[in-house]
Amino acid sequence: MKFTPGHINRFLMFKLPSAWLAGIRLKSITDQKAIVAARHRWINQNPFQSMYFAVLAMGAELSTGILVMKKIQDSGQNISMLVTGVQGSFTKKARGTIRFICDEGNMVDEKIQLAIAGGEGVQFELTSKAFDEQDDLVCTFVFQWSIKVKSLYKKTGLKTN
Length: 161
Fold this sequence. Notes:
Blueprint: H1 5-15, H2 17-21, E1 25-29, E2 34-39, H3 53-75, E3 79-90, E4 97-102, H4 105-118, E5 122-131, E6 137-149, H5 152-156
Antiparallel strand pairs: 1-2, 2-4, 3-6, 4-5, 5-6
Helix pairs in contact: 3-4
């Protein structure tokens, strides 16, 4: 898969339609940082005329998870990934266009190399911060990710004895 906003946003439409319908869109991705955006609209609002917390969580998760996906593909290894925990804190009503930023690509590189070298699962935390159009912090999410190199033997059904 190509890690461009266009390709990833099409991926969302077909594989994560609830995120796509809620207006979650990848805006940019580099080796170090991913930026995701969502605009407050009728479809993604709560009864208090701000963005529903689940939409905020989806945007934040995408900003961290897309970095993990890109780094796994760049590694050339068969690595599984899974969210094992999440924490969120909210500081302001989410109105207008909200940007979710995760800039911890270097840490993902380190953790993938650790998983490849050790052959064991590795857990780590990535933070996504969300900002409104005035650059005020709206919320912060911390996702705990678990990655593990998939065994060739498990995939093919071959026995190791």
